[in-house]
Amino acid sequence: MANNPVGPLPPVHGGYSTDVAHALNQASYAPLFQQVFGANVFQTGNEANVDALAGQAIAAYEASEEVNPFTSKYDASANARPPANLYPFTASEENGRQLFFGKAQCFACHSSAPLDSVSSVTAGREVFTMYCYANIGTPRNPNNPFYQETDPTNNPNGYNPQGTAFIDYGLGSNPNPSPGGVHFMTNTPGDIADFRGLFKAPSLRNVDKRPSADFVKSYMHNGVFKSLEEVVHFYNKRNIAVNTAGEEVAFDLRVGPPAGYTPLFPAPEVLDNVQNVAGLTPSESRQGEADVATNGQIGHLELTPDEETDLVHFLETLTDGFIGSGPEQ
Q: pTM for this structure?
C-alpha cells in the first residue's frame, strides 16, 4: 500500500470534511444511500456515522452473489460445501488441493476453515483467506511506476518525493489506527517495527480470473510477479540459492547465501517480520520451532516441479463462472 497522501478535502454541503462523507455526499448514488440509511444521513456532525454505514454497505455488497457467486469448479466438485460432485478434479488438480492443505502450507494463511465467524456467513464455504497480516518477503518491483512519480507539479496530491528510495512498509505505513486503537505508525511509515512489511492475506478465489487467456496479471501487492507459476515458485524457493553447477542450498535471508551461490529471488523489500526468514522446511519447523522467523510456511517447501504445477492447477479451479460451462459428470 503506497503512501499516497491526498490532502484534506474542502468543506461542502453542510461542512463535511472527511473523505468518505464528502465523496458519498457528492456521488451520483447519494440518493440511494439516503434511501437505505435515511434522508438525514448526510447532516452535519454525522460524518463518523457515515463512515461506519459506508463500511456496512461495502460489506453487504462484498457478501452478495454479485461479488461472491461461488461458481468455480471447486464449488461444483466433491470438495464444495455441500459437496456438488458435478465436475470431478483431474489427478493434478486433486494433488494440488492436497498440497494446498498439506505440504505446501498454503492453508496457514489462505483458509477460512478455522474461522467459525466466516463459516457461519458462508454456510461453510471456503473463502481461502484467514484475513491475517504477514510479511512473506516480497521483493521490490523495479518497474513500479510510483518510483517515477516524483513531480509535485503534475501530481500534487500523490507524488513520491523519495523516488526509488521509497519503501513500502504495508500496514506499517497506515496512519489510521485500528478499531481497537492500535497504531501502526507514529510519525513516519515504518517507525513501529512490529508492523513493518505486513500485508493482509487476500482471498485466492478468482486468483487466475482474467478477461482472456493471454491477459497478463500482476501478483503481490506491488505486481512484481506476472504468473501463478512465478508466485508458487517464490513460495517454494524464496530461501534457495544456486551455484554454477546447479546445486541448491537453503540460506537465512538475514545472513545471505554462502560464497559461490546466487539467490533465486531478490532480497525482500522489508526484511523485518519476514515469515520463516531462516528458511527452514515445514518438517524442520515442527521440531519445536514456533516463532514466525522459523515457522517453515514459506521459502523452503521442498516441492518438486510437478508439485508446483499441480498447485497452480488447483488454484485455477477457484475461478468463478465455471459452473454451467462444461458437461456435468
A: 0.84
